[in-house]
Amino acid sequence: MTNQRIPLIAGNWKMNLDHQQAIALVQKLAWSLKDANHDYKSAEVVVFPPFTDLRSIQTLIDADKLELGLGAQDLSKFDSGAYTGEISGAFLKKLDVKYVLVGHSERRQYHNETDEVIQAKTAAAFRHGLVPIICVGETLEQLENEGQSAVPIRQTLAALAGHEKLGDFVIAYEPVWAIGTGKVATAEEAASVAGKLRAAISEAFGSELAAATRILYGGSVKAVNVAGFLRSPEVDGVLVGGASLDAEEFSGIARFQKHLAL
Ligand code: PGA
User: Which of 8, 12, 177, 222 is the best mutation target for the ligand 1 pocket, counting ligand atoms within 8 Å of the beta carbon and taking the most?
Assistant: First the structure.
């Protein structure tokens, strides 16, 4: 089967870089990719800056006609109203944000986001025409008790359950024990979980949707290890934290030519 899923290289900056630093990084990144003749049609490259940087980056992308995409790290499950500190998907859409991370393990862990909250945020993303990147993954303890794919499958099905109609979405498999730790899942493990996630989506929603769904790997991805993950036909991109804060490093990750490796 030919693979129609365009690889997605996503850079999650987390709570790093103010709007001035953000502009500098995006300029460097765009330059580096241009220098390498990066073909954005063979690998989409998207940055996920903090909310306060979004307007500046949107303006830069617009002014310089950059092909880089813009994503946000979170959104409210509500659309508007008395929810101090929350950000509506409508506001993100207005800033040309295309993707939004939902259920990152740091949100699950430090902000007590449950599967229900994540399902509601996924619904909010669909309502506003944003593509949620639903993050799933097991902790070390869950890995020992339940193995590697039970938790990601459960979290994926919970986020996708109960919607009147599913919009476009992406799944990011990020083993919690591999995030920011330097410990990486092996390429075989990532491919095996991605395959099981696709099978679970197929069983729940049909094979056509499963075949069209992009499944990313995340957790200590760097330019030196990205090839292993992307060589698997099951892994359709990467979600990169720490290494996305360095323009050269992130550009090195984005430049991996998956279509040539398959
Ligand atoms: P990391 O983070 O690349 O720094 O491990 C990945 C993530 O949390 O998305």
Answer: 12
